[in-house]
Structure formats: structure tokens, C-alpha cells
Design a protein that fits this description.
Strand order of the largest sheet of chain A: 1-7-6-5-4-3-2
Number of helices of chain A: 3
Radius of gyration of chain A: 15 Å
Largest sheet of chain A: 7 strands, antiparallel
Number of domains of chain A: 1
Oligomer: homodimer
CATH topology of chain A: Alpha-D-Glucose-1,6-Bisphosphate, Chain A, domain 4
CATH architecture of chain A: 2-Layer Sandwich
CATH superfamily of chain A: START domain
Largest interface: A-B, 31 and 31 residues
CATH class of chain A: Alpha Beta
Order of helices and strands of chain A: EHHEEEEEEHE
Chain lengths: ~140, ~140
């Protein structure tokens, strides 16, 4: 069981990659802050001030401008997130996010999948609006 | 089985209501066009040019600036969408979208719920960016 979300962002792949890897840029469209830049092997804490939440990610694999793989989630319930960037042309990138490793027998599995899907579509919408339009106020408005 | 999505939009409820009811405004953040304004009792066709798709909605209930209820979907598989607007203060509205009536025994139920959740989060993100920031290029970038 996995969920995949694909988006077109009208920016080159290196610009999209930097927006994800650099925690200061991330603060404009997703988590408020991160303790470190995304680099292979690092464990990073991401904080979401508005929801008073934070969590650790373990960066499993990085291919500059192409791929970021990390695991996150509560101990024993970690999932793996794979983000790939494919440059459609010099001005446009297809970003694909796949989250996998959900516990198939979890009693709330359907709600978890639905929530995660909503989260990824929101993150990608905010990322696109930030990169293409300089909007940094779209985040933190989904009410749980 | 139903899915609910709630968003805060920093505009008064009448502005949010008009953006949904008026098909010309809708074209900036959701479907490309609609054959008519949303009014109780009407059947309207919404068209999505980029996905070469269109569908009919039946408007079941309208409360000016407060509520829109419609059904949509293929015959025999219609679901009901209830949109409510609650003014948090004069400058801010909580919009809640609930889609219900999914066929519980549909073999693709989980995928349908996950896709619909993604669709609603996307629609609400685009609506917010349109109303707050004048962005009308966020739509039609989710790749199926």
C-alpha cells in the first residue's frame, strides 16, 4: 500500500530540489523549520510551529536535483517517502512523491492514507505557489 | 464513509461564496467553466478543459454565503458534496467540504477516497491562493 502524488512545477529541477533541501526555503511552504539541510545519512528534526508538532526524518538517499528518500513517523510505524524530480524541459519539472510502508493491518489505515494524501497535495500546492508566485502564506491553513 | 476537509481562507464568507457560485470566478482555481451560476434546483455542467472532462452537478441546497450542497458523479455512483462557510471574523472564513455517499462495497473504495481527498485539498489550496493572492495558475497541475 502506497500513495503517489505527481505535480508539474514550472521551475527547473535544481530550483525545486533546493526548495526541499534547504530548511530556510522550506519554511515558506511546508514545515516552519528544520535543524539541517537534507543530506544523505543525516537525521533532521522538522518543526511545524502552527501545529506545535515536530518529527525526525532520516535521510536515506540523495541524488542532487533528482531524488530524495527519507523515512519518518513514530517508532515502529515509519514510512518511506521517495521524492523524484524529472525535468520536463529547462523551465518545468515533474515532481513525484511516493509514501510507502504503511501498516496494512492498522485499524485506521484508510484514514491514515486519506490524511497523508491530503498532506502531500497540500505540500505540493504550497511548493508550487511559493516557487512560481512567491506566495508563502498558503501553508498552515488546513485545519485538522 | 465520508471525507471532510477544512481550510481557513482570509476573506469574508460572501467573497468565498461568490468564488464558488460564479463559474467565471471558478475558472481561476478549479474547473475551467460552468454552464450556469450555482442556484438551488439547477443542473449545471462543469468542464475541465485541461483534463478534457466534464460532469453534471445537481444543486440540492443553497444558503447564500453559508452553504452549498450538490450531487455529482456517474449515474448510480453519485456522491453528495456539502460545502459550509463559517465566518471566523469579518476577514476570515472557515470552509468545510464533506463528500459522502461513497459505495462502501466498491472494490476501489480506498483509491477513490484517497483521490477525492487529494482533489479537495487541491481545490481549497487553489481557491485560497486565488482569493488571497490573485494566483490563477495553481490549478490543472496535479498529474493523474
Amino acid at each position: 500500500m502506497e500513495i503517489t502524488t505527481k505535480f508539474r512545477i514550472d521551475k527547473p529541477a535544481n530550483v525545486v530540489f533546493e526548495a526541499i533541501a534547504d530548511p530556510e526555503k522550506m519554511g515558506n511552504y511546508w514545515f516552519s523549520s528544520g535543524t539541517d539541510r537534507i543530506e544523505q545519512g543525516k537525521t533532521i528534526t522538522w518543526r511545524y510551529d502552527e501545529y506545535n508538532a515536530e518529527g525526525k526524518i532520516k535521510v536515506l538517499e540523495v541524488e542532487e536535483n533528482k531524488k530524495i528518500v527519507f523515512s519518518w513517523g513514530e517508532e515502529g510505524q515509519e514510512t518511506v517517502v521517495t521524492i523524484t524530480l524529472e525535468e520536463a524541459d529547462s523551465a518545468s519539472t515533474i515532481i513525484k512523491v511516493t509514501e510507502s510502508g504503511f501498516q496494512e493491518d492498522h485499524p485506521e489505515l484508510v484514514h491514515i492514507l486519506v490524511d497523508q494524501k491530503g498532506g502531500w497535495v497540500y505540500m505540493l500546492s504550497c511548493l508550487k505557489a511559493y516557487l512560481e508566485n512567491g506566495v508563502h502564506t498558503l501553508r498552515a491553513s488546513l485545519i485538522h
